[in-house]
């Protein structure tokens, strides 16, 4: 039977085997927490390593490691042949008392203060347990030549100039990467920008968040498509914007509906579009609508937020030039992604806008992401300079075009007249419409039983349409036929309900 002291420690110490933190560190953290709270006051002699290890069913070496860790942090003193004793907490460490019955591993689940939770920011994702997972059109990291990327990373870390860039980050208005990127965008997208017109960030969402902070006040009207990226909607809603949705058809955003809103004296602050391929439908904004949208922006003085999220993935002819290339009045804020053919950790995003707006945007970036990622920027700068980015894109396009063709062929052959879709001229996803309509939520449940997880964010259904966005970029030509067969079986079960 354990002594009262040992029994106390068996209640005090708790091991979580599911955590990545080593067991000896878990125990050291719990004991230091107890010392801070006064549960183990100064001078307390801790149990011997042998009886404690036996009581909590651990190897003695683990307890030895716990005590050594506490000694390194100056919580205890180990006296040879005498024992381990609690020291007085260092003055720089915050101490707090607690009720003796309050165990150190019981941290509060609720705050003692009020805060403002947001209903807009709850994640719609869940961790899939299925063999396959559909997405909205993500690149395949398996196509990457990891060894080559490792060489780029290693070479960048060895650059002596990198140290100077770290020191000068806050004083240099335009980074070396932004200078290289502006040259690249001018060559590939028919732009005429300078580094002062560009800001690089870690993600498009960060760009859009900064835009919302600079542009939107509560109740400002932002016009979006009735089918729109949920992440951008979340950012606008969090900024307390009033969202008004207008139809999206096979020519992109319906500009006639926008004109009607403006003629009704609606004071519109911004219009959000995906001009090259509208998300999620993959339909492009037509040339006539582009011209009309720019004219309306000039006349009514609203901002156009142009999200060009998949410009690099163009299979037929050439990609459409961004709307900002024809903007002569400073109404367009252009958002894009760079390095999508690389590892996710080597991808970045950017914003292009008039220099006055970029200056203010960089002030926000300085506040929320002061350091940035200089190693990443160095790698991408060198890949632009050496032409490696162009080679990576060219290699991946051949693969993705073949996967698109396999996906569209399998959809046609398997579903036949049960669905309708347009073969996309670019991007990594197909927009599929079901006719007659089915319950997409039931369809997703049946697909999950068949081993395919379909996130709710890919399902688009109301009284007017029943559509699914299927990404093919991460699926190889052997997986696609199998997945389409499983989706057809899931569809048949949904129809039979």
Index terms:
497 residues, alpha/beta, Arc Repressor Mutant, subunit A, Aspartate Aminotransferase, domain 1, Aspartate Aminotransferase, domain 2, 3 domains, 7-stranded mixed β-sheet, 4-stranded antiparallel β-sheet, 16 helices, 18 strands, globular
Write up this protein.
The chain has helices at 4-12, 23-37, 49-55, 60-72, 146-157, 161-168, 176-189, 204-215, 230-238, 255-263, 287-300, 355-368, 374-386, 388-415, 440-449, 479-496, and strands at 45-46, 76-79, 83-86, 132-133, 198-201, 221-225, 242-246, 248-249, 252-253, 268-273, 303-308, 332-338, 348-352, 419-421, 429-434, 452-453, 459-461, 466-471. The protein has 497 residues and is of the alpha/beta class. The protein has a seven-stranded mixed sheet, sandwiched between helices. Helix 7 (176-189) crosses helix 13 (374-386) and helix 8 runs parallel beside helix 9. The N and C termini lie far apart (62 Å). The model is unreliable at 91-95 (pLDDT under 50).
